[in-house]
Amino acid sequence: MPNVEQELRRFVIDNFPFGQVGEGLSNEDSFLDQGIIDSTGVLELVTFLEETYEIKVEDEELIPDNLDSINRLVKFLERKLQVSQ
Amino acid sequence: MCGIAGIVNLNGQPVEPTLLGRMIERIRHRGPDDCGTHTDKQVGLAHARLSIIDLAFGGQPMHNEDKSVSIVFNGEIFNYLELRADLLRRGHRFRTQCDTEVILRLYEESGEECVRHLNGQWAFAIWDSRRERLFLSRDRLGVRPLFYSVADQTVMFGSEMKSILALPHVSREIDPVALDQIFTFWVTLPPRTTFKGVRELPPGHSLTVQQGRITVARHWGLDYEAGGEDAADGARTEDEYSAKLLELLVDATRIRLRSDVPVGAYLSGGLDSTLVTALIRRSTGASVKTFSIGFDDPEFDESRYQNEAVRFLGTHHQDVRCTGADIGRVFPDVVWHAERPILRTAPAPLYILSGLVRKHGYKVVLTGEGSDEMLGGYDIFKEAKIRRFCAARPESRLRPLLLKRLYPYLGNLQSQSGAYLQAFFGARRDETGDEFFSHLPRWQLTSKLKTIFSDSVRSQIGAYDGLAELRDALPAGYSGWDGLCQAQYLEAAYLLPGYILSSQGDRMAMAHSVEGRFPFLDHRVVEFAARIPPRLKMRVLNEKYLLKRCAEGLVPPSVRKRAKQPYRAPEGKCFFGGARLEYVDELLSPERVAQDGIFNPATVQKLVAKFRDGRAVGIKDNMALVGVLSTQLVVDQFIRGFREEFAYAERRAGTAAICH
Predict the structure, then answer these.
(1) Which of B2, B35, B322, B550 is labelled catalytic?
(2) How far is Cα B236 from Cα B231, in angstroms, rounded to an integer?
């Protein structure tokens, strides 16, 4: 999902201006470790996912394993979109 | 309450009186009722007076009979009647009824040791002409401000930095390390201030100038050595602690009502200010004049509890509603008075509130400040306790869920999973020994904002390590204190004077010539509270447990039992979405941000775009926006041009005496 990856990158870089790396964010960088996302940031991110990709993120899915890097987000989205198809 | 300023020429030259006038004119809002200056040899003193005690004869600078000792004083000595009676017995004679003269006589009696006898809030300067010695002193907890500067063989001091910055000797320049500290701790670590050339005399310190030598020394410090054991008083029961605390608070309130003008109170709707109001009523037997602020936004509004307190205590109440637009409108004035970047808008409603007080003809208010620090009220104390509990069993999935109990008013947090809560607040088992354990999450979160600094500011900050500086400044014995006491110390020694009592306290009240008085900061209360066992301050997760016991029957049960709600105000959105604020557009424009050189223009634009588009914004966005805007306002008002007008010029023109 190359487009999705680009969209996610753009969203993260534009909406979380306080990351250490900015445009240099790699797909493996942990948002938590990089200081990109705080407790409200998770909510922003989930709102973006739900609105852009028309999915519903369940409470138990709100875990770093699903949401804490570009790659994890891409994989999580792949799973969700398969289920919803 | 007043403003003071002064100059010492280390080269022995006489002081130019016009310079004194220039300094004191800058802070006439602190003392619109009268003013005066005095020069003697190489020293000049200036004073702006807000008349509160001995209205007719309390003018300053004040001198002894042969004018060999002169004083300018900002503050109140609440035990002045007792000290005066004692001095009379020792043969001193008084010409006024003023607390100022009590300090003067006490200095004649016991020299610089005089401060040990004072119960109050002060910043004063005494010129001892015989010894050719200048003595500056600041109260124990930093209620009253005092800044100084040394340049070109001249020592300058004043109640606010703007009086010092008004002098030609002093360069007006932002200190990048101060920015680093504010964007970590929310405060500068004294003696550092926002400005390179100005220093803050730390709370509980004195400064002397004699024969060209400047000495700064501590006269008091907060000590939790006995915290929890209370060896000095022997084992007390909970009832005894509660009774003693109440007894001290009753007396602390009683002596804070000493005034020749009427005294009112702030009523926030919380436990502390409600209890203070109840104690005023108990002391005077009369109805109390109370003031409070309400918000249109229910997230911040506490009117319901304020009204319950008003009904329960039968006060004469005035309130003012505050909107986001109001905050946006007054913010430049707020920063002018605060004299530093701030990360929260919370000072702005307090600025509006002091305006209400003044409008109703009051000059003095009692408030509940200090209670959360001294008696264990802040969420950060609870947060640290839960984090310790989590760190003891890092594999537990349930323990982090306790963190939700902490911040019931933060909707976002309520929908977080345990895994994320653990990630945001979690601690490894080995971190629990860190001396800053309680504050690391806050400081680490705030430090993330520093990526918004320009490359130039970041390179000037270089490898500077604020935590290391703070660690070096910790008192001996700190590492052995109980965890709650350590956290209390960090709040009481830094955030309290550096932000709560200054940016939210003195500077916002004095902007409208209003004096705050704080029973919880009576040093007898503070010293006793430091010996209360931590388990009685925070009972499991019940904050201010002992104080709540004290307040039983004195405040409405609903106020006593309500969940703690920290005082907060609408943040970044105040500056967008309503009527366009010209100063916001100008100061946050990419051109201006680039010219001023403090922040990265591209990052600021991303941040501003989030607010302008109304996209969801989080804690960090809000702190960053308010931090950037206030810093830009500091640059605009203090560096680019030195603001010539005064916030309340019209009132000044009408009533203030001209200073000669």
Answers:
(1) B2
(2) 10
